[in-house]
Write a structure and sequence with these properties.
Mean pLDDT: 86
CATH class of the largest domain: Mainly Alpha
Subcellular location: Cytoplasm
Distance between the termini: 52 Å
Organism: Rhodoferax fermentans
Number of helices: 4
Keywords: Cytoplasm, Protein biosynthesis
Strand content: 15-25%
Protein name: Ribosome-recycling factor
Low-confidence stretches: none
CATH architecture of the largest domain: Orthogonal Bundle
Pfam families: RRF (PF01765)
Largest sheet: 4 strands, antiparallel
Helix content: 55-70%
């Protein structure tokens, strides 16, 4: 594998790490209601645990309420129980076929806890990016050891990989700051 491929692969994997981090951030609740908050909830559907989005339509009813519309009649109670049993602290209520999920207002203490969670997720993403940098640098060192690249190419490549790593870490810091600002906004 040439040095250019090592750099491309490392950057692609770092991009994937940031995409995964962004996906994890959508699950963290802010002051606004987001239907993605229920993505982690799984429902017992004929003996199999499936995500709620595969058995119901989740949408916004208003700025503080989600609506969950089951696709089958008998699933309402199971969906309601799954939401209640999740660690999200939500209390759904049925209105015929429609399940309303009101979002409680967040206290200042809860907001501060969530900012700590966001920072922790950010650190995890940074660690993943740094591990990818280490793997890329090791791959380049192996190329030099196998006499497929020179030491000058190694130095240049390591500098390029460091620049890419720094760029991705800045993006992660910006995402963390943005999410913290969303959480702390009342």
């Amino acid at each position: 594998m040439p040095i250019a491929d090592v750099k491309r692969t490392a950057e692609a994997k770092m991009d994937q790490s940031i995409a995964a981090f962004q996906h994890n951030l959508t699950k963290i609740r802010t002051g606004r209601v987001n239907p993605a908050i229920l993505d982690t909830v799984h429902v017992d559907y004929y003996g199999a645990m499936v995500p709620i989005t595969q058995v119901a339509n989740v949408s916004l009813l208003d700025s503080r309420t989600l609506s969950v519309q089951p696709w089958e009649k008998g699933l309402g109670a199971k969906i309601e129980k799954a939401i209640r049993d999740s660690d999200l602290g939500l209390n759904p209520s049925s209105m015929g076929d429609l399940i309303r999920v009101p979002m409680p207002a967040m206290s200042e203490e809860r907001r501060k806890e969530l900012t700590k969670v966001v920072r922790g997720e950010g650190e995890t993403a940074k660690i993943a990016v740094r591990n990818l940098r280490r793997d890329a640098n090791e791959a380049v060192k192996k190329l030099v050891k196998d006499k497929l690249a020179s030491e000058d190419e190694q130095k240049r490549c390591e500098a390029d990989i460091q620049k890419v790593t720094d760029k991705h870490i800045v993006v992660i810091d910006q995402l963390v700051a943005s999410k913290e600002q969303d959480i702390m906004a009342v």
